[in-house]
Amino acid sequence: MNFRKATAQDIAKIVEMIADDELGQKRENFKMPLPKEYIHAFVNINADENQELIVLENDDLEIIGTLQLSFIQYLTYQGGIRAQIEAVRIRKDHRGRGIGKIMFRWAINRAKERNAHVLQLTTDKQRPKAIKFYEDLGFKATHEGMKMHF
């Protein structure tokens, strides 16, 4: 398996994985041709040195997973860097094989390489299996998250 930075040619496969679950189907718009908003978002992500959109390829060079790491510089923790992991997805036909653990080990190591002092994530409360998975990896629910959608 190979981790690499996503390219423009990968966008459709990434969006397809993001849209391929009960919650993703409600908020994503996966169709071909891909809506221009996804292309615009990729261009912005790709241009930002603090964003890493990553794909995982199997031995046949098929994309089977994706995640996004954001590195956030701030003043607290003595000017620390916080890593945020988002949009972790595994292609449906590859789930249940331990790939999620491999992806998180990679992300944890990458956050350490970038000198982050914490790796954080949010997950929807409607995903109890995901919450259990994250807890089993060592993540702790130390804060209460809040959002305001527009």
Classify the fold: give the CATH topology: Aminopeptidase
Mean pLDDT: 94
Order of helices and strands: EHHHEEHEHEH
CATH architecture: 3-Layer(aba) Sandwich
The N- to C-terminal Cα distance equals 38 Å
Question: By CATH's scheme, which homologous superfamily applies?
Answer: Gcn5-related N-acetyltransferase (GNAT)
Helicity level = 25-40%
Counted by DSSP, the helix tally is 6
Got a strand count?
A: 5
Structural class call reads alpha+beta
> How many domains, in number, for the residues?
1
> Largest sheet at a glance?
5 strands, mixed
Q: Name the strands of the widest sheet in spatial order.
A: 1-2-3-4-5
Beta-strand residue percentage? 15-25%
Show unreliable segments.
none
Shape type: globular
CATH class: Alpha Beta
The radius of gyration computed from the alpha-carbon positions, rounded to a whole number of angstroms, is: 16 Å
Can you put this structure into words, describing what you see?
The chain is of the alpha+beta class and 150 residues long. The protein has a single domain, classed as Gcn5-related N-acetyltransferase (GNAT) (Aminopeptidase). Helix content is 37%, strand content 24%. The protein has 6 helices and 5 strands. The chain has helices at 11-19, 22-27, 36-47, 76-79, 99-113, 128-137, and strands at residues 2-5, 51-57, 63-73, 81-90, 118-121. The protein has a 5-stranded mixed sheet with strand order 1-2-3-4-5, sandwiched between helices. A hairpin with a 5-residue loop joins strand 2 and strand 3. The longest helix is centred in the C-terminal third of the chain and has 15 residues, at 99-113. The protein is globular, with a radius of gyration of 16 Å. It starts with a strand and ends in a 13-residue tail after the last helix. The model has no long low-confidence stretch (mean pLDDT 94).
